[in-house]
């Protein structure tokens, strides 16, 4: 089973947005700094997330992105689907051509696993993740590190 960087980064960025969105629009530059994801990569991901109506952009000074719906309405699977990522445990990407154009012995098993994983991720919302203590602890550490770096770079 493989979830590529695209899916992982999309979920991470959306969780960051859910954690900080109460402060108003969040810039991709802020997400980039906190999560160590390239700004250009985030721009590509957020274009897809915007098309899927998961985020909305706010232009102008103080602009950025906000969740288009509540964090409780956004499942992890929905984010992954929005960036055209699949959670696929098969070798053939579900095409049934695993063995020289034919279905292999375990194809249906891996398809069922893929379905179960997608269902599991569909049952977890960003709202639930935001409430987890370990997520809040990591977010607090990231804020402290960012604040320390900001102070260090602005000191004479």
Short summary:
The chain is mainly alpha-helical and 156 residues long. The protein contains seven helices and two strands; from the N terminus they run αααββαααα.
Q: What features would you describe in this structure?
A:
With 156 residues, this protein is mainly α. The protein is 56% helix and 5% strand. It has helices at 5-20, 28-35, 39-51, 76-82, 107-122, 126-131, 133-154; strands at residues 55-58, 64-67. Strand 1 and strand 2 form a beta hairpin. Helix 1 crosses helix 2 (28-35), helix 1 crosses helix 3 (39-51) and helix 1 packs across helix 4 (76-82). The model has no long low-confidence stretch (mean pLDDT 90).
Beta-strand level of the residues, as a percent range? Answer: 5-15%
Shape: elongated
The major sheet is characterized as: 2 strands, antiparallel
Total number of strands: 2
Rounded average pLDDT: 90
Poorly predicted ranges: none
Structural class: mainly alpha
Tally the helices: 7
Q: Indicate the radius of gyration in whole angstroms.
A: 18 Å
List strands and helices in order, with pairings.
Elements: H1 5-20, H2 28-35, H3 39-51, E1 55-58, E2 64-67, H4 76-82, H5 107-122, H6 126-131, H7 133-154
Antiparallel strand pairs: 1-2
Helix pairs in contact: 1-2, 1-3, 1-4
Pick out its properties.
mainly alpha
């Amino acid at each position: 089973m493989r979830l590529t960087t695209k899916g992982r980064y999309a979920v991470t960025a959306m969780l960051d947005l859910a954690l900080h969105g109460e402060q108003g629009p969040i810039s991709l530059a802020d997400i980039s700094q906190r999560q160590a994801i390239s700004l250009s990569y985030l721009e590509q991901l957020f274009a897809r997330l915007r098309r899927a109506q998961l985020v909305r952009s706010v232009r102008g000074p103080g602009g950025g992105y906000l969740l288009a719906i509540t964090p409780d309405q956004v499942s992890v699977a929905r984010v992954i689907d929005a960036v055209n990522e699949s959670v696929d445990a098969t070798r053939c990407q579900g095409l049934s051509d695993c063995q020289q154009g034919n279905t292999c012995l375990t194809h249906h098993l891996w398809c069922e696993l893929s379905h179960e994983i997608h269902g599991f991720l569909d049952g977890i919302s960003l709202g639930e993740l935001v409430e987890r203590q370990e997520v809040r602890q990591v977010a607090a550490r990231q804020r402290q590190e960012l604040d320390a770096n900001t102070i260090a770079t602005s000191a004479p």
